[in-house]
Amino acid sequence: MLSDKITNMITPHMNYLGYEVVCVRAPKVNTRYKVEVLLERTDGTKLTLGDCQKASTRISVILDVEDPINTPYTLEVSSPGIDRPLVKPADYKKYKGYK
Question: pTM for the whole thing?
């Protein structure tokens, strides 16, 4: 699956920069892919716009070099926000008791 492939490509780089990849989505919208990357800071502080810009620049380079998508795509990097998806077993444990 494309999102899994991209996750595996970018995770070591994001970890090095101090970010955890929450999830990657890569739906095809019309003829373009929309690559959505949700990140959190590993130190627990709030993800800033500067963090998103830094991560986006690095991810763009990785996607350009590795070329997992051979058609035009849009890249969006953001914080998961209030509707954070629970993806890993550790997420369920960490957010137990939250609505």
Answer: 0.80
